[in-house]
Amino acid sequence: MDTLEQYRQIICNILTEHTKIPYSYGNIQHETIFDKEQDRYLVMILGREPVPELSVTATRRVHGCLIHIDIIDNKIWIQRDGTEEGIAMELVRAGVLKDRIVLGFWSEEVRENSEFAIA
After folding, report:
1. Cα distances (angstroms) measured from residue 97 to each of 39, 75, 102
2. Distance separating alpha carbons of residues 32 and 28, to the nearest angstrom
3. What is the mean pLDDT of each run of 10 residues along the chain (119 residues)?
4. Is the Cβ–Cβ distance between 19 and 46 less than 8 Å?
């Protein structure tokens, strides 16, 4: 298996595991979106959550991106990471080298001081 295919498989496995973690409140669902042709991988959250400041029964719609990863020029770009621990460390534990991971949600100046790839 080549490196690109390994990256795809690792990303899909990690993101699928995140869909199994239940939200602590509300009726929130997780959805994965895997576009292997464009190398875009997302975990979306959607549903309804309580709004206690309005009333006991009031809810609001929740819809957003929890995790967004792209593979660009054979590097894994983390564009959005809404997890507690951080997707980058999960990728490292799965065998991805730090110099192959770009923390895209940080500016290039901040990435220069990280242990991960700049671009």
Report:
1. 18, 10, 11
2. 14
3. 90 96 83 96 94 80 96 96 93 96 88 85
4. no
Sorted by sequence, the CB contacts under 8 Å of residue 56 that are 6+ apart come out as none
Strands (E), the chain: 27-35, 40-50, 59-72, 75-81, 101-103
Yes or no: say if 48 and 59 are a contact pair by the CB < 8 Å rule.
yes
Give the dihedral sign, CA 8/15/77/67. Answer: positive
pTM: 0.89
Q: Classify domain 3-111 at the CATH superfamily level.
A: XisI-like (3.30.310.110)
Contact between residue 116 and residue 102 where contact means Cβ atoms under 8 Å apart: yes
pLDDT digits (tens, 9 = 90+) for 37-64: 999 999 999 999 888 777 778 889 999 9
Secondary structure in 3-state letters for 11-37: HHHHHHHHCCCCCCCCEEEEEEEEECC
Radius of gyration of the CA atoms of the chain, in A? 16
